[in-house]
Amino acid sequence: MALKRHHKIIIGSFSFFVLVLIILLSFLTYSVYIQESQHYNSLNDKLSTLEANTQSQINTISSNLLDVQNSLNKSQEQVQQQISLLKATNNADFSGIINQSIKSVVTIKTSAAQGTGFIINSNGYVVTNAHVLADSSGHLASNIQVITDKQQTIDAKYIGYNGTLDIAILKIPGTYTPLDLGDSNKVQIGDKVIAIGNPLGLQFSVSEGIISATNREGINNLPYYFQTDAALNPGNSGGPLIDQQGNVIGINNFKISSGESLGFALESDYIKSAVNLIGEENLNQTLIS
Question: Which of 2.40.10.10, 2.60.40.10, 3.30.1340.30, 2.40.30.10 is the CATH number of 97-171?
């Protein structure tokens, strides 16, 4: 039986309603999908940001822990240095400084005399007093040799000198551990010192004393000298005067023979300037940085 007209209208309307409903449901489903996708992407971005921030914080914490560890190590080293200094002040550990320093001290022999020197550059540059290298007529002596603490005798090359400050530079082949120069401006009266040299031919002898005065005038009328009661004798000239930290604060230069315990050493700041001037004039280089 054929459908009547109103039946067709009802069926058509219902079909249209179902189609619209399907479209609306599809749109709603798509909207929900889009919202969920956006929410997922947003959550994923937040997780990525959180992960990056967490990693950054972990790196910062690790760096801070490393800084703390380095600081603790540095503090421990400083404490050990202070302990070593305290021992040296109490005469309990000067032997360590002597054993370390004496490796860089040398005996200097010429055809005319004998003295002392010390290494100021790893390339084998040696500083001494100019008068150690002079013969009786005041000229440069021949056959200059250096004897190390291991009793190696090495021919030395003369580089140059500063007559006013009585400083001369020699060069020996090889690589060596130099002595460090301290800041002579920080030296105070009463500071303990040791002198290493070859008094009367007794190689690598050590004497101990204190700084008796600073900025004393030397035979050149310049106030560039420490006065010390550390025993100085012929053969000590050119040797180092060393403080409790193992630094050279002076080069032993002369003594007053008519008095007791009246030795004088050129202060380290003037050693440095004289050495570098000799290096620049004769080698076009700075020997002590």
Answer: 2.40.10.10
How far from the centroid of its chain's Cα atoms is residue 207's Cα? Answer: 28
pTM of the model: 0.68
Q: Is 131 a catalytic residue?
A: yes
Q: Which of 101, 207, 237, 268 is catalytic?
A: 237
What's 181's DSSP letter? Answer: B
CATH number of 184-282: 2.40.10.10
Query: Is 166 considered catalytic here?
Result: yes
DSSP β-bridge partners for residue 32 = none
Could you give the 3-state DSSP secondary structure of residue 203?
A: coil
Distances in Å between the alpha carbon of 266 and those of 3, 40, 66?
Answer: 131, 80, 44
Query: How far is the C-alpha of 267 from the C-alpha of 245, rounded, in Å?
Result: 16
Instruction: Read off the pLDDT of residues 170-228 as tens digits, 9 standing for 90 and up.
Output: 999 999 999 999 999 999 999 999 999 988 778 889 999 999 999 999 999 999 999 99
pLDDT per residue as tens digits for the range 37-70: 777 777 777 777 777 777 777 777 777 777 777 7
Task: Say if strands 157-162 and 263-267 run parallel, antiparallel, or are unpaired.
Answer: unpaired
The C-alpha atoms of residue 73 and residue 282 are separated, in whole angstroms, by: 43
What pLDDT is attached to residue 79? 64
DSSP state of 3: P
With a cut of 80, say whether residue 261 has pLDDT above it.
no
Residue 268: active-site member:
no
DSSP letters along 123-149, please?
TTEEEEEGGGGB-TTSSBPSS-EEE-T
Annotated catalytic residue, options 166, 184, 205, 207 = 166
